[in-house]
């Protein structure tokens, strides 16, 4: 059984719904060995002036987050390996990338998750992103953005939730299938392998047509290409979803041929058996 979950959010993130201590205590009660928070650093919203429901997205107080998290890390040492991470929302502008590099240099997070949330000036979770766009066009734009994000200059460890665009997509069939976008998905997977990054299997799939994203067809292709570094993530925003579907993800990964998940822990990669 997978005993780790590093991609989660607390009140420090704009959309988090729970206190950090409650989240850590829940992770302990579930028997997790490694638990991490990867709070949102949404500087991409600043760059493109992206709004959610007409409002600016609240940005994280980085100093407050790291001060609190480091104190918790010390307090819970010996009970659980609590890791302090960041989720950087990729943007192509040099000033925003410099801001992410500065966060990394200033606070030395234990791990960094690289994510694509914004594309074509919109957050590709919300209905306005899909308005007037075919599924092929919208998903292709998102996937090319993911490919571009892999060359980000900050030292990220994990490539997050490939298929984010399908979570709330306004299509009768929202599923992101490898066969429909084989060339661009191959380019993404090959670059993840080339750069020695970790591919996230995210169990917050919502209406994406699968229990997790990316689905097994993409994970199988990653394995066939030689990719072995995967990580389970619940993307929980409150304590109720920590570790959600880790048994389902574990079984699916084993069927493909994976033997372990890979955890980024302060510059080192640790393998945890499935």
Automatic annotation (TrEMBL):
Pathway: Amino-acid biosynthesis; L-histidine biosynthesis; L-histidine from 5-phospho-alpha-D-ribose 1-diphosphate: step 8/9
GO biological-process terms attached to the record: L-histidine biosynthetic process
Keywords noted in UniProt: Amino-acid biosynthesis, Histidine biosynthesis, Hydrolase
Residues covered by the PHP domain: 5-204
Catalytic activity reported: L-histidinol phosphate + H2O = L-histidinol + phosphate
One Gene Ontology MF term: histidinol-phosphatase activity
Keyword field contains Nucleotidyltransferase: no
EC number: 3.1.3.15
Any one cellular-component term (Gene Ontology): cytoplasm
Domain of life: Bacteria
InterPro entries found in the cross-reference section: Histidinol_P_phosphatase_HisJ, PHP_dom, Pol/histidinol_Pase-like
UniProt entry tagged with the keyword Transmembrane: no
Family of this protein: Belongs to the PHP hydrolase family. HisK subfamily.
Protein name, as recorded: Histidinol-phosphatase
């Amino acid at each position: 059984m997978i005993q780790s979950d590093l991609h989660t959010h607390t009140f420090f993130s704009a959309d988090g719904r729970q206190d950090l201590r409650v989240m850590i205590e829940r992770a302990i009660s579930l028997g997790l060995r490694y638990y991490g928070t990867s709070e949102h650093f949404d500087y991409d919203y600043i760059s493109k002036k992206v709004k959610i429901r007409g409002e600016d997205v609240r940005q994280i107080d980085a100093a407050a987050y790291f001060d609190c998290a480091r104190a918790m890390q010390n307090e819970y040492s010996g009970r659980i390996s609590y890791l302090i991470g960041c989720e950087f929302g990729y943007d192509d502008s040099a000033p925003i990338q410099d801001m992410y590099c500065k966060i990394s240099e200033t606070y030395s997070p234990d791990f960094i998750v690289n994510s694509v949330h914004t594309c074509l000036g919109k957050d590709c979770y919300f209905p306005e992103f899909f308005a007037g766009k075919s599924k092929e066009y919208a998903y292709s734009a998102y996937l090319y953005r993911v490919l571009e994000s892999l060359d980000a200059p900050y030292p990220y460890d994990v490539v997050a939730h490939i298929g984010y665009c399908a979570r709330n997509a306004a299509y009768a069939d929202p599923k992101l299938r490898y066969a429909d976008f084989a060339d661009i998905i191959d380019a993404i997977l090959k670059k993840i392998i080339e750069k020695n990054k970790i591919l996230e299997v995210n169990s917050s799939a919502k209406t994406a047509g699968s229990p997790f994203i990316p689905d097994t067809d993409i994970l199988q292709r990653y394995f066939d290409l030689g990719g072995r570094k995967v990580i389970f993530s619940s993307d929980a925003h409150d304590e109720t979803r920590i570790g959600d579907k880790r048994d389902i993800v574990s079984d699916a990964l084993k069927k493909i041929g994976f033997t372990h998940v890979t955890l980024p822990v302060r510059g080192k990669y640790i393998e945890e058996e499935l």
